[in-house]
Amino acid sequence: IEKYSLKITNKTTQIIGRGEKIHQKISEKAENWEKTLEKIGKHPKTLMYSLGITGSAFLFRMTTFYLILTSLGLQIHPFKIMLLIPLISFASISPTPGGAGTYEAAMAATIILLTNLNLATALTITILYRITTYWQTITIGYIATTTLGKIPSKKQIPQT
pLDDT for 53-91, tens place per residue? Predict the structure, then answer.
């Protein structure tokens, strides 16, 4: 895939006289991918660690979704939740930051399709889920980055 992608972008660049940056990015990503595979080959624990983190993130998202449903007095079969969470993750690929807007619409639509819940309930679940998993993180990150420069370093603290 790497070889053909690089050939195609190189040929396209030669024909239209543009696209060197895209060709360079694809080349860099391919090199990064190769380095990652080499690292995993040399240190298999890296792969296990990565899989553990990814798996736990998935479990936390499922648990959050399940707790939101429980707090609203609703129940959805766990297998539907296991299907729903990865399906709606595709919506975050949209060009908006974090998939804002499209993610919510996709999640509400998927909830309606997989369950017999109405639009108002699906939107409530979606908004609560996004507040707990996305907007809370954005808010904490914003506060952390805006106050980071205001925290005095050791050099700035007067010695007594």
Answer: 888 888 988 999 999 999 999 988 889 999 988 888 887
The band of 158, judged by pLDDT with boundaries at 50, 70 and 90, is low
Structure tokens belonging to residue 46: 């890296």
Q: Which of 108, 105, 112, 137 is nearest to 124 (CA)?
A: 108
pTM score, whole prediction? 0.62
CB contact at 8 A, 87 and 79: no
Distance of CA 37 to the CA centre of its chain: 21
> What span, in angstroms and rounded, lies between the C-alpha atoms of 138 and 96?
14
87: Cβ contacts below 8 Å, ≥ 6 apart: 106, 110
The string of DSSP codes covering 108-139 is: HHHHHHHSS--HHHHHHHHHHHHIIIIIHHHH
Contact 46/40 with Cβ under 8 angstroms? yes
